[in-house]
Amino acid sequence: MNMNSNSAVFMIFGATGDLARRKLFPAFYSLYREGKLTDHFAVIGLARRPRTNDQFRSDVLESIREFARHEVQGDADWNRFVEHFEYMSLDSTQVAGFHELRKLADRLDEKFHVGGNRLFYLALAPELFGQVTTHIREGGLLESKGWNRLVIEKPFGYDLASAEKLNRQIREVFEENEIYRIDHYLGKEMVQNIGVVRFANALFEPLWNNRHIANVQITLSETVGVEDRGGYYDHSGALRDMGQNHMLQMIAMMAMEPPSRTNPEDLRDEKVKVLRSLRAYRTPEEVRSHVVRGQYTEGEMKGTLQKAYRAEDSVNPNSTTETYFAAKVYVDNFRWAGVPFYIRTGKRLPVKTTEVVVEFKNVPDNVYLANDHRLEPNLLVFRINPMEGIYMKINAKKPGAEGVIIPVAMDFCQSCQVGLNTPEAYERLLHDAVRGDSTYFTRWDEVASAWSFIDRIAEAWSQSSDDLHPYPAGSWGPEAARELLARDGFRWWPVNGQHEGEVIWVEGETK
Ligand code: BG6
Hints:
Elements lengths: L7 E6 L4 H16 L7 E7 L5 H15 L7 H8 L2 E5 L6 H16 L6 E5 L6 H10 L9 E5 L7 H12 L7 E3 L7 H11 L13 E9 L8 H26 L8 H14 L6 H7 E7 L1 E3 L2 E3 L17 E7 L9 E7 L6 E8 L7 H5 L6 E7 L3 E9 L7 E9 L11 H11 L8 H20 L4 E5 L6 H8 L11 E2 L2 E2 L8
Helix pairs in contact: 1-2, 1-12, 6-13, 8-9, 8-13, 9-13, 10-13
This protein binds 6-O-phosphono-beta-D-glucopyranose.
């Protein structure tokens, strides 16, 4: 028997879907190429549609050619990798197929000396989670001598009540410590780096509180529309699709206390404390004054006319679903009292980027420099995606000019480093799941706290949609989002150094 805990039979439910093709197969290949997955593994692709092993393997090859970080090497190498992949057509509504699946898993386990470990990856619609997990148990798939783990994708529910129901269903079969809930943002290199930069630097750690920080801004802007996911998205909207998970998780990473140890539960304990400290909006009026929602209309992006959200496939032509939202959020604890966290996300915005900006408070006004000049605040910016790096904006003397102060950027561009092929979030998370490290997966109490916060907003929105602001595709979203900060005397800092056509700062340059 192979005792390597990195070995497993991976059962991918939804193996013909987009996630498997774009993320999972390429992740397996990278892990394999980098020696993080030994030869003791097997992948069983599962979906309803019939497919031969050969067809499945050529789908896997195509997906890796298109999306993987590593080029496929010669035939011999490829064949050695792909022989670990098999396909089985499965009707997940019937338990019979799960008995067959068990036989196949046992056979592959023996063939590759896996040692009984099983990882069930549900890349499926959540409505199926309950039934599939029950069938996994009834099909005898949990009766092996190794560990069993369940990896599930978002959305984890539609609100707190449905999330609780879903959780009850899967908890009937799996223990909490066997459940790995994916939030792929937590797998991103720079999101994980937030904690390191915060806690490992004497330059930042002492300043990380309401005495020195004026506000924090988190932007997740996307240029894409809803693509072929109109059916899902129209039911979900930006608040549930991005807010409940990625954005609140990033607030938690920015705001949490340093974990006292490095066990997975320590970090998750700290994150959940932040989520529980989010100030709940008490009335629909409070929601209105703290949260702005928008929906894209027709507009031009890079010379191409993009259609309105309501004209997208599978979207209700009268839809009031938000494709944008911005919110002012407070973390009510000693460290953060009074510091607004501004968050915004939207589809069809001008730039694809994820950035977190920490705006520091200004130096006292009576300092002689501040009297004579309008000093810009210091900024610390985490560039999460697609550019990875950190930059700081500080004030300095303009070279050659008498008494002129300008903001200059100290820029560390991680993704510019030659030869650095940063692992994809899914690679990292798949690797963590197989190693049994749940640090960067969301625990149930985090999910529940996040929903409690989000539900208040969703509930207020469900009462009336007259605060839904249209914004043209290619713009930075509704004007009301600008006002949200302007009321507090702040403004959104430019992402990638650009904002509403105005270039304020570009790579390596200051103005
Ligand atoms: C997903 C959302 O969770 O995140 C998508 O469902 C969104 O709507 C995507 O496009 C963004 O992820 P990334 O990694 O491209 O920023």
